[in-house]
From TrEMBL:
Name the record gives this protein: ATP/GTP-binding protein
Species lineage: Bacteria, Bacillati, Actinomycetota, Actinomycetes, Pseudonocardiales
InterPro entries: CATASP, CobQ/CobB/MinD/ParA_Nub-bd_dom, DNA_Partitioning_ATPase, P-loop_NTPase
Species whose genome carries this gene: Amycolatopsis bullii
CATRA-Associated Small Protein domain residues: 455-532
Domain CobQ/CobB/MinD/ParA nucleotide binding stretches: 7-277
């Protein structure tokens, strides 16, 4: 599959464009994508500063050498990119602006881009582009600010997508909207087959911790000004303001000093951390600006989908064991290893567990002895957040010892397939059952979540227009509210129970006096149906 070229552009400097690109590249690589970053901000190159600790040597060439290659008659571009040494798996390469020596400034000033294009440089760049997109999944270009010849190359000629960054002021916002529209007009005049841009607006360096009301007002204003940029890709059920809020990069003073990669430190970021927003931007790029209805409904599910599309796992199964460790758990692990599965144990209170941004194992198995420990519950919730993608075939299993009562499990675990270790079922038997599910089950999600959503939608559509008593409507309304809460919590077991309750209420025949649907209830039902239908669409996409 051909890679995608994405240009990061800002009309003004100081908006965090290079910072955002550098961090997004590391995230995409962590998620399994091959990434090439290109520093085309020749007058003020900066990507090599962000990647300095990851470079084994300084770049000896770069973008300015592409012009030299062309002028010397090279048929194909020479190799000027260097691969970065990431602290984890993944591929990020850097095509720097050029070798940073005393001759650099003069070489940049000597380049006449207009003359190069008259000589046929556009065709040479097309060959460069073809090579880049063949070797990489994403090519991220850091463009110069303002209006320039270089800006036209980066915004009109090369990219498939644009990410435009701006701060909360009129000239910054209007500048990126104007450039995006000019770039589309320029593409129409090009001899190459380029569809209209898909443009992601990113409000950057927004400080809403002190001047909250002013920040809110500017977010709303920026959403209105950038609305034209969303029209050809944002789902109709999602507002521009919703999307802009999800992708707003906050101002965090700690990261304003120097050139840093917070995504290498904030591996599981919370909503108030800067890496949370960077993950959202990376996910939109990884998802090719698609499936945005899921993004608005469940941001974590959307990011999880992007994270797992290309992810590989070191282990087949991670077995979570509470303390004190039951001896039968060790027997189970040994049996799984004998069956040629890649298995490791995760013992409660292991301090290194949350220090890793990616999961080591495709599947997670909780060995529950008596009750679920707080650590196991945290592990399971973290696993489910990472495995929320409906197309994923990742599984969470529960193995219960004889001391464990299934009815006392947390609701989000009760609807899973449960395996028992007791006098009649030994570790070898359970290991074989797990092996069969892990190895032999067809790819794709096979848990009951999809069915629960379909049943809930069917029950909601069957809610009658009239019932015999007003009191029954109160019960229906509360059930609908509870179903919405269960969906918020991703509690499929509770959603199943409430769906069964609603089915019973729907079957009550109307006799005697009739009471029509109360004001507002039908709107609640329609809104919940729309949310469920979006989830079902994700399952079947």
């Amino acid at each position: 599959m051909t890679g995608t070229v994405v240009t990061f552009y800002s009309y003004k400097g100081g908006v965090g464009r290079s910072f955002t690109l550098a961090n997004v590249a590391v995230l995409l690589a962590r998620w399994g994508y091959r990434v090439l970053t290109i520093d085309w901000d020749l007058e003020a190159p900066g990507l090599h500063h962000y990647y300095g600790p990851l470079m084994s040597k300084a770049p000896k060439g770069g973008v300015i050498d592409l012009a030299a290659d062309f002028l010397t008659g090279a048929a194909e571009p020479r190799q000027h990119a260097i691969r970065l040494a990431l602290p984890e798996q993944g591929t990020v390469s850097l095509l720097a602006a050029g070798k940073q020596d005393v001759s650099y400034t003069g070489r940049v000033q000597d380049i006449d881009w207009e003359d190069l294009y008259r000589r046929g440089f556009a065709a040479f760049l097309e060959r460069c582009r073809a090579e880049w997109t063949e070797n990489y999944d994403f090519v991220l270009i850091d463009s110069r600010t303002g209006i320039s010849d270089i800006g036209g190359i980066c915004t009109a000629h090369l990219p498939d997508r644009l990410v435009v960054l701006f701060t909360a002021n009129q000239q910054s916002v209007e500048g990126v909207v104007n450039i995006a529209q000019r770039a589309d007009a320029a593409r129409d005049r090009m001899p190459y087959d380029r569809p209209p841009h898909l443009v992601l607006p990113v409000l950057s360096r927004l400080d809403n911790r002190v001047e909250y009301e002013r920040a809110e007002g500017w977010q709303h204003r920026c959403a209105e000004l950038t609305a034209p940029l969303y029209r050809n890709w944002l789902a109709k059920s999602v507002t521009q303001e919703q999307m802009l809020r999800h992708t707003t990069v906050p101002y965090v003073s700690y990261w304003s000093f120097g050139e840093h990669l917070p995504v290498t430190e904030e591996l599981t970021p919370s909503a108030d951390q800067i890496s949370y927003a960077l993950e959202s931007i990376a996910a939109v790029i990884a998802q090719q600006f698609d499936r945005t209805a899921l993004f608005a409904d469940n941001r974590d599910a959307y990011v999880a989908a992007a994270r797992t599309q290309r992810q590989s796992y070191r282990l087949d199964l991670l077995v979570s064991i509470s303390r004190p460790e039951p001896p039968i758990a060790t027997e189970l692990i040994n049996e799984l290893v004998d069956l040629k599965l890649q298995v490791e144990r995760s013992v409660s209170t292991d301090p290194e567990f949350f220090d890793h941004g990616s999961d080591p194992a495709k599947h997670l198995c909780l060995v529950i002895d008596g009750e679920v420990s707080r650590w196991q519950a945290t592990e399971a919730e973290r696993f489910l957040r990472h495995a929320l993608d409906a197309d994923s075939d990742r599984r969470l299993f529960c193995v219960l010892t004889r001391r464990t009562d299934p009815e006392k499990l947390p609701a989000f675990l009760r609807n899973l397939r449960l395996f028992r270790l007791d006098a009649n079922t030994r570790p070898r038997q359970v290991a074989r059952q797990l092996h069969e599910v892990i190895i032999d089950a067809p790819a794709g999600r096979t848990d009951s979540g999809h069915v629960a959503l379909q049943d809930a939608a069917a029950a909601l559509r069957k809610v009658p227009v009239e019932l015999s008593r007003e009191g029954r409507w109160a019960i229906v309304e509360q059930t609908v509210i509870d179903m919405a809460t269960a969906l918020d919590d991703n509690d499929m077991a509770l959603l199943k129970e409430l769906t069964a309750d609603l089915d019973l209420l729907n079957e009550v025949r109307v006799t005697g006096s009739r009471v029509t649907t109360p004001d507002g209830l039908r709107e609640h039902i329609d809104a919940l149906l729309a949310r469920i239908d979006r989830r079902i669409t994700v399952f079947t996409d």
